[in-house]
Amino acid sequence: MENVNYIAMASIISAAICMALGSVGPALGQARAVQSALSSIAQQPDERNSLTRTLFVGLAMIESIAIYCFVISMILVFANPFWNFVIKKIGG
Amino acid sequence: MEIMSIAQISPDQVIFWQWKFITLNATILYTWIVMVILVIGSWLVTRRLSPTIHCSRWQNFLEVVVSTIRSEIDEVSKGEGRYYLPFIGTLFIFIALSNILAVVPGYVPPTSSLTTTAALATCVFIAVPIFGISKQGIKEYLKEYFRPTFIFFPFHVMGELSRTLALTVRLFGNIMSHEKVIAILLSVTPFFFPIVMQALGLLIGIIQAYIFSILAMVYIASATQTHEEEHEKK
After folding, report:
1. Which one of B23, B25, B217, B224 is most buried, counting C-beta atoms within 10 A?
2. Are the beta carbons of B3 and B183 closer than 8 angstroms?
3. Contact A63 B170 (CB under 8 A)
4. What is the model's pTM?
5. Are B214 and A64 inside 8 Å of each other by CB?
């Protein structure tokens, strides 16, 4: 019974840490990307279309890192493989 | 009306009907609904097309959609939008409609399931070499993998695989996380905040559809433009 408690505690805490640390980096990166894109658009309004498109593609690339962290923390909370393993071992 | 509980991550787990090994889950059912809406809607609109200025309002709408997608593709692929419009346009319209319909109660977007997004990303993964080989020949296409030296071959292969994984997880993560946020908000603060988040979800859905199709187009464009062409331009 002890192991179940430990696994629940460890997976919830590590999901929270994963989400917290994993969103800091992409947030800083996206902020820098948007900042420089805005100043470029202000300097060259004619190039707005290609700048916006490149900005979106770049933001998607940066954002995927945060999404990886999010998916991992969702798996830890809702579909934890270790949890099922321990439950099966106790039951069987 | 919610057909999924909070603990269910993917609509694959909601099973409507089962017969031996054939299962009809929510993902398949809602994918069929989106397909039926797209096919019947475009058949109804394109049944009576008029070449003059006086056209029906739905024809006007479809013309705006198609010409916008085409001009976006034109800008990425240097004026070859006609060639790529069927593939990229289908991806965009399917993802956009299945994301927009999320405001309908009882509907779960099929793009919030990992299987749908993996299938879409696999389409892109297969389409990139097909377009590349048909554009510049199999020899020139394979040469791209060995640039600048043959040491880079494994990195090119890893890049192909990891960007397919990134396409899959990006669309799935965004749409699924939005569904979960709305489900959690419904249990915490009902009535007002879920509606605001639904309105935000319309924007997120369109942006994700745009990003998915523009990334597919960028990958195809990088496979079809030869190295020499880019060198001459500089």
Report:
1. B217
2. no
3. yes
4. 0.84
5. no
